[in-house]
Amino acid sequence: MSGRSSGIEAAPSPVETGTVDLPARVAPVELVEVGPRDGLQNENRPLPVGTRVELIGRLLDLGVRRLEAVSFVRPDRVPQMVGAEEVMAALPQRDDVTYVGLVLNRRGAVRAVETACDEINVVVPVTDAFAERNQGAPVAALLDEAAGAVEVARGAGRSVSVTLAVAFGCPFSGPVAPERVADVAEAALALGIDELALADTIGVGVPAQVRGLTALVQGDERLRRLRFHFHNTRNTGYANAAAAADLALDVPIALDASIGGFGGCPFAPAATGNIATEDLFYLLRESGVPTTGPADLDLGAAAEVSTWLSEQLDSPVTAQLGRAGDARVRA
Amino acid sequence: MSGRSSGIEAAPSPVETGTVDLPARVAPVELVEVGPRDGLQNENRPLPVGTRVELIGRLLDLGVRRLEAVSFVRPDRVPQMVGAEEVMAALPQRDDVTYVGLVLNRRGAVRAVETACDEINVVVPVTDAFAERNQGAPVAALLDEAAGAVEVARGAGRSVSVTLAVAFGCPFSGPVAPERVADVAEAALALGIDELALADTIGVGVPAQVRGLTALVQGDERLRRLRFHFHNTRNTGYANAAAAADLALDVPIALDASIGGFGGCPFAPAATGNIATEDLFYLLRESGVPTTGPADLDLGAAAEVSTWLSEQLDSPVTAQLGRAGDARVRA
């Protein structure tokens, strides 16, 4: 049998014609960089204001155009975010860049609008267990705070998003009923916001949830843009991002990611954190999904920023592209 | 505005009714454990036969029922796989377990059928560049070798699968044309095999490729079972696995995984390797996808095996479940 012809002849250049079927979606996915906020917030070593400003400058050089720059939270609770006002004051003012400031309540929004933040991102957990432990009040009270924050942001002419924390699972109360997420989402959308975000704060979610939760909120005519925030704590983050990018929606989709994959998880201290900007970009690019902010990303340059940040934080890069190298699977 | 009722009242137990929409697929996905072969082959430290036998015993205790136990390759090329015959001789003979032996050619199959291997897995690369460098002959010649190996396996009453290496991208020639994969797949199916596998040997693939390549082979009536082999080298492995589990096919689907995620990638030495059995199981379980071999997996016990293997190999666990902890997202 070894003398039989296989019917396969040596192809001189079999790789030159490689293509994959592109997904139905052609609308671009917006990438939102959260490294300067979520990426730093869960690392043990607080970075000085100057280093945080340098990080943001390096991200802008990579083509990042929307980024969570700071959070206006209590310095005694989150020392990594001390000096939000100083960071904002030091950033270049650019019409093509959206700086996002995270707040938990009306007081945070009042601080934020005193700075050059273009967008206020209000975090509202969907479970009372998390709300009480993390923010000292039940969900209903935090929605009232969110309403106040939205009012403050609108009054100052800033755009505003609401991020639903622990929408995929709660570290204190476990599984979360999708209907509960839908209820809090509806309350958030009723505030008149520019974007709703579903956050897998502790990295427990799976693609079926991405689709299931989206199905519950996508019919709301007040939904203008849907953003997702995934952590790779249990190695499901990129699968979730791929599922989100495949969604066929009438509204734009945005995905959070953190350069280098920094960020960790406060509820699983040894685990990895946010999905990494460079790895997410690779996944989307090779899948034929166009992106905005950046539309293209130099993966080598991104890996250099990650390595630099790793040195600043004394924490390992969890993104893999820097170690594995770029590779194009489509010709 | 802070006094306004949000319409969301405190829910006493919002988590108790949590469900996610189950995917359309109800057919189980078979898990194939490749830790004893691919997991060890790319680690620097060869393990003695006794330790490899112990590893397989521990995997059987976890519920693993189909596993790549050994490879019959040249000892001078792959010192980690020395002693395949001794490993096979030391394993418990069980009717409910399928031991797979990997071979590259007819000679390997001759060795394999002298042992208790239930199944012969023949690896055939789809690019000449990889075939020449890795196995010293072009694809056409290796398909002839595969034909010989299938003949030997059939003559000895063993089942046989063919794994198409570098089907998602080649470290030497780059992108691979899907038509090339389809051509080699057709030649492999013409040999009369029990299963075809598509392997992302270097971890460059994305979900769109999983669907695209599957579309090219699923119509072949000789296809009896489709298996996928993913590496997480660039953080796309679990997204690919999720895409494979979502495929709606007339034939059963199997997924390779390695306990602890050991295995590395010889073409990216610093990168992580196979997708991890425990993390894959978590992803599928939480997605509502039933599995076989194991139907259920004790994630704590699996993490213990990974930790033990990490000590034997002096190599870190890349699976995340052990660090992050199990969490159920469905009530």
UniProtKB/TrEMBL annotation, chains A, B:
Domain named Pyruvate carboxyltransferase: residues: 29-303
EC number: 4.1.3.4
UniProt cross-references to PROSITE patterns, sorted A to Z: PYR_CT
A single GO BP: L-leucine catabolic process
GO molecular function: hydroxymethylglutaryl-CoA lyase activity; metal ion binding
Keyword terms: Lyase, Metal-binding
Superkingdom, taxonomy of origin: Bacteria
Location of region: Disordered: 1-20
Family recorded in the similarity comment: Belongs to the HMG-CoA lyase family.
Protein name as catalogued: Hydroxymethylglutaryl-CoA lyase
